Amino acid sequence: MITLRKFKSALAAIAVLLLAAPFAQAEEEAGFRPLFDGKTLNGWVQRAGKAKYAVEDGAVVGTTVLGTPNSFLCTDRDYGDFILELEFKVDPEMNSGVQIRSEYTAEEKKLDTTRSGKPVTVPANSVYGYQVEIDPSKRAWTGGIYDEKRRAWINDLEGKTEARKAFKQNEWNKFRVECRGDSIKTWINGVPAADLKDGMTPKGFIALQVHATKKPEPMEVRWRNIKIKEL
After folding, report:
1. What is residue 123's DSSP assignment?
2. Do 101 and 3 share a structural domain?
3. Structural domain boundaries, residue 8
């Protein structure tokens, strides 16, 4: 039998939980700041290819352009340890990604490490570094980590069934990326995806990629609610 005293205690406990929830949410959100103001591309610079970037309905819209290489809209400063959150929506026929801790070279550059153990040559006018993949294809590796212009795939989603199922075709999806020292972790719609230990690049810019295309018809990828918490 539930006594009046026990009933009052239970009500008090529920009240405490209800009151604590908003504070917990506020604490989790504390420290985040927007990287995109929702109106302009202030704070961003385009590098490498000549895909089109514009602002529309509070989102950055990237549009493919035939005959141009991979294009990147880059933050105008570098970030080291951070939590990045954003939403994206992508054409089902289009490959894209979000660069983190990335770099740019105006001239041809040789780097120390590749998959073959030999130096890799990065072409002039190239962005290189970690990319959180946006992959709407049947392979479904959205959230995996590709090393742009360096080592290719370094943390794919092979065997990670739940992460591969988490991506929603033709809908808004959410990324969470945590970089702490040599640890890089990603989530797609709240589901853990990549978990990488790699210390090659401790800091660099963040960039929104529009992949090169062979199709004359333009395709779009959109990003919104882009925010970061530096650690």
Report:
1. P
2. no
3. 1-30
